[in-house]
Amino acid sequence: MNKRSWITFTVVRLLAFFVPLLVLLFMQVNPWIATVLAAVIGLCVSFIFFRKPRENVARELYEVRHAEKPVVREDDEAEDAVLDALGETPAAPEQRQN
Question: Which UniProt keyword terms apply here (predicted)?
């Protein structure tokens, strides 16, 4: 996972919120209204102009979340060791008889 893209995107998103907020507060707009307007402006700016960093972060998040990891259980390793010692190969579930 590339931490640089996460940090860059986070900083840019924060700037997209705080710059309009500071401008609105400097213009003496009511702080509640300034905060809501800054949030909307930051969202719109981020959606329109920061598509590439947003897609990079989303892709990395998807890759981390959906990484293929083999499921290994404790008893599987023990059973494989016993079968290796006996010189047998594990049978497929359909071939096993219970």
Answer: Membrane, Transmembrane, Transmembrane helix
